[in-house]
Design goal:
With 490 residues, this protein is an alpha/beta fold. The protein is 47% helix and 8% strand. The protein has an eight-stranded parallel β-barrel, surrounded by five helices. The longest helix is centred in the middle third of the chain and has 17 residues. It is globular. The C terminus is likely disordered.
Length: 490
């Protein structure tokens, strides 16, 4: 049986390349052609798309899900769900996560790719149970990382825990493009020996290893790989669908897909991408710096902006030097939302303050208090005492057990602005953006999509554009490469 392909053009591809700004109106014309290709699934929702739809695009993310499902008659829909974080950046109470999953299923979601930033099985429990109860496909996900404590054994251990929760499939998720081909072969090979469910592999092309990693994963027994149509592939996105289909043709892994059909869709998205030029990540080709700093592209830009705001962009090499120390102090978390933001921001604070952990954010304090979950390795006790003070405050149980229900309070706060349960859930997840959207809707609805897009693009252009990951502290060229070389020389 051939390898199956999940195409990410409607979610992770534009999240990685275009700041998640693709509008629903630009997706709908491609649905019939996408549906005819024969994909295993189309990733259409989750990740940052929910927040961005409300906050920037002034769209209802639930309506996007319904419209896309209507146009996909044959192809299963898929989303990325951050476990107890749902589609947000903190842990939500169980009632929010449970109802979010149920309503997502009712509105058209088929496959739920569920992950946790710390690979803590306890943070999967509510989402996995809700998915199974709602009749969805639960894909338990292991976040790949490079650290002294992440090994094929730990990947297998996490997979077993997810299978025990009822996972219908397992995904190995490489969110920063760090997975080399040999690691992919070894980990997938071990998983193939230990679990009797389909195995999916997700990676990014940032470091230049994605296609090789996918091929070795397939050789080791992967059943599904994530790709994106060529016009929305590579750089910080996924491998090109057409390329991988051609690579596997006439082998025992032949996908059976028609490159011509995929290419026609790629042609369409070539035009769509041009509409969002203002939001391009400006990371073209290979960024070898990711092999050194290990940070996903979005966090790189955030760190550079933080330094620029403090007129300290010249301290970038020092921040890169500090990041591995912070990550070690925090127990080697995988660098994915939200842990990548915590590590990166704390490294910036340590460098700018001239003293390690003199200033910490509320989120970092909560991390050391145990409110994000069980860390892959123990955190530094010295740092924990400095950040927390009284260690008796540190929780040991499942973080969400300490959160009271939230939906009733959300219902009371948003009142008549909420037209349905989906609105209440949106407000519970993102109070301010949701309220602003509901206010706009109550006044007659947002402007025409083209007008909103023009306004957002104008606002983006009015601000200093975010630098590419390889910009310099002073002249805008090659800072990340320079910083990386300086680290290697130390």
């Amino acid at each position: 049986m051939g390898v199956k392909i999940t195409d990410t053009v409607l979610r992770d591809a534009h999240q990685s390349l275009l700041a998640t700004r693709m509008r629903t109106e630009d997706m709908l014309p491609a649905l019939e052609q996408l549906d005819a290709i024969g994909y295993h699934s189309l990733e259409i929702w989750g990740g940052a798309t929910f927040d961005t739809a409300l906050r920037f695009l002034k769209e209802d993310p639930w309506e996007r899900l319904r419209l896309l499902k209507q146009g996909l008659k044959r192809t299963p829909t898929q989303m990325l769900l951050r476990g107890q974080n749902a589609v947000g950046y903190r842990h939500y109470a169980d009632d929010v996560v449970t109802r979010f999953v149920w309503k997502a299923r009712e509105n058209g979601m088929d496959i739920f790719r569920i992950f946790d930033a710390l690979n803590d099985p306890r943070n999967f429990e509510t989402a996995m149970r809700a998915c199974k109860d709602a009749g969805g496909h639960a894909q338990g996900t292991i976040c790949f990382t490079i650290s002294p404590v992440f090994t094929p054994d730990t990947a297998v251990e996490t997979a077993r825990a997810l299978i025990d929760m009822g996972a219908d499939s397992i995904c190995l998720k490489d969110m920063a493009g760090l997975m080399d081909p040999m690691s992919a072969f070894e980990i997938v090979g071990r998983l193939r020996q230990e679990v009797n469910v389909p195995i999916a592999v997700h990676t990014h092309c940032t470091s230049g290893m994605a296609e090789m990693a996918c091929l070795k994963a397939i050789e080791a027994g992967a059943d599904i790989i994530d790709c994106a149509v060529s016009s929305m592939a590579q750089a910080t996105s996924q491998p090109p669908t057409e390329t991988m289909v051609a690579v596997l043709r006439d082998t025992r892994w032949d996908t059976g897909l028609d490159v011509a059909k995929i290419n026609a869709v790629a042609d369409y998205f070539t035009g769509v991408r041009q509409k969002y030029a203002a939001f391009e990540s400006h990371t073209f080709g290979v960024d070898s710096g990711v092999l050194i700093h290990q940070m996903p592209g979005g966090m790189i830009s955030n760190m550079v902006n933080q330094l620029r705001e403090q007129n300290a962009l010249q301290r970038l090499p020092d921040v890169l030097e500090e990041m591995p120390h912070v990550r070690e102090d925090m127990g080697y978390p995988p660098l994915v939302t939200p842990t990548s933001q915590l590590v990166g921001t704390q490294a910036v604070m340590n460098v700018l303050m001239g003293e390690r952990y003199k200033l910490v954010s509320r989120e970092v304090r909560q991390y050391f208090l145990g409110y994000y979950g069980l860390t892959p390795a123990p955190v530094s006790k010295e740092v924990q005492e400095k950040v927390v003070g009284d260690l008796s405050q540190v929780i040991k149980d499942r973080p969400a057990d300490n959160l009271p229900p939230e939906l009733d309070q959300a219902q009371q706060e948003i009142g008549e602005l909420a037209c349905c349960e989906e609105d209440v859930i949106s407000y519970a997840l993102f109070p301010q953006p949701a309220r602003e959207f509901f206010d706009l809707r109550a006044k007659g609805g947002p402007p025409e999509p083209a007008v909103v897009a023009a306004i957002v693009a104008a606002a983006q252009a009015a601000e200093p554009p975010p630098p590419p990951p390889l910009s310099a502290p002073s002249d805008g060229k090659n800072a990340w490469r320079l910083a990386g070389r300086q680290r290697l020389m130390r």
